[in-house]
Amino acid sequence: PFGDLNQISFESLITKNDFEVNDFYNLSYLIKEKCISYHYTSTPSNIKQTKNKINFIGIAPSYSKTSLPELPFAEKEIKKLKTLLNGKSYLKEEASLKNFKENIRNNNIIHFAGHTIIDNDVPLNSNLVFTKDSFNYKLPAYDLYNMKINASLIVLSACNSGLGKIKKGEGMMSLARGFSYAGCPSITSTLWSVSDKPTKDIVLLYYKYLLKGLKKSEALRKAKLDYIDKSNPQLHPPFYWSSIITIGDNSPLYNVNFSYSLIIYIIIPLILLTGIYFYYFKRK
């Protein structure tokens, strides 16, 4: 996207002149026809290979010691993802900036469900907000430019995480952009303030399709279409579902192809055990 187009979710554009339709569900959104992913104008080349194994860490801070409101569905989101991906989670008091920094090098999926504080005038001063356990509980965007993150995917399930200042020749300067410069080739972020529960519902569906080996844009597209089909009609407007976008490397996160490890560790032992079983009873 160029200029102000960085603030638009293209999948919510209408492909036909059907504005006379009285409900949001039946409008001809572009997402019904196409998968859409986004790229920054200028980013480092950090393409990671598709993995056979997923190492997941989920973070849902508590904001009881700050002026920010609590996000009850964020904690539920992380708990379900931990079970789904058999990963680690840091909730409430454990969701500190310290724990985040200590774990970002060892996991290929990092999922943050919490608050951001966005500075549109000076985007490098925008922050991810963790549980307040000390004076230092905010991660500013300028710190990201000096970090090394080995993750294949970072999901920023937080308001305005992909929003910032539009810089000519660079595009959107945001928290998501900072993670891209830190070495992560793929970021899922938001373009405006999102609702807690719809975001949780869409994100859980997104991971469901990622685990089936779909490309990130296709997984997010299917998640949103499922959400539109099953949600309350009051939640059909694009405000609730089109803010979440995928940026950067669009390749599948998880390789579900038939692998040699499956043959070696499962099929061959089963054949041997079956052979031993029948040989034993034949002799008997």
Structure overview:
The chain is α/β, with parallel strands linked by helices. Helices cover 32% and strands 16% of the residues. The chain has 8 helices and 11 strands. The protein has helices at residues 72-85, 97-103, 141-144, 175-181, 196-210, 216-230, 238-241, 260-283, and strands at 56-61, 88-92, 109-113, 115-117, 127-129, 138-140, 153-157, 165-167, 171-173, 186-190, 244-248. The strands form 3 sheets. A 6-stranded mixed sheet has the order 2-1-3-7-10-11, sandwiched between helices. Strand 8 (165-167) and strand 9 (171-173) form a beta hairpin. Helix 1 (72-85) runs parallel beside helix 5 and helix 5 (196-210) crosses helix 6 (216-230). The chain is globular and about 80 Å long. The model has no long low-confidence stretch (mean pLDDT 86).
Q: What's the count of strands? A: 11
**Widest sheet: strand order?**
2-1-3-7-10-11
What is the string of helix and strand elements?
A: EHEHEEEEHEEEHEHHHEH
Strand content: 15-25%
- Gap from first CA to last CA: 74 Å
Radius of gyration: 21 Å
Low-confidence stretches: none
Summarize the biggest pleated sheet. 6 strands, mixed
Question: How many DSSP helices?
Answer: 8
Q: Which descriptor suits the 3D outline?
A: globular
Kindly state the percentage of residues in helix.
25-40%
* Class per helix and strand makeup: alpha/beta
Mean pLDDT: 86
Q: Which terms would index this structure?
A:
8 helices; alpha/beta; 284 residues; 16% strand
Secondary-structure map with pairings?
Elements lengths: L55 E6 L10 H14 L2 E5 L4 H7 L5 E5 L1 E3 L9 E3 L8 E3 H4 L8 E5 L7 E3 L3 E3 L1 H7 L4 E5 L5 H15 L5 H15 L7 H4 L2 E5 L11 H24 L1
Parallel strand pairs: 1-2, 1-3, 3-7, 7-10
Antiparallel strand pairs: 4-5, 5-6, 8-9, 10-11
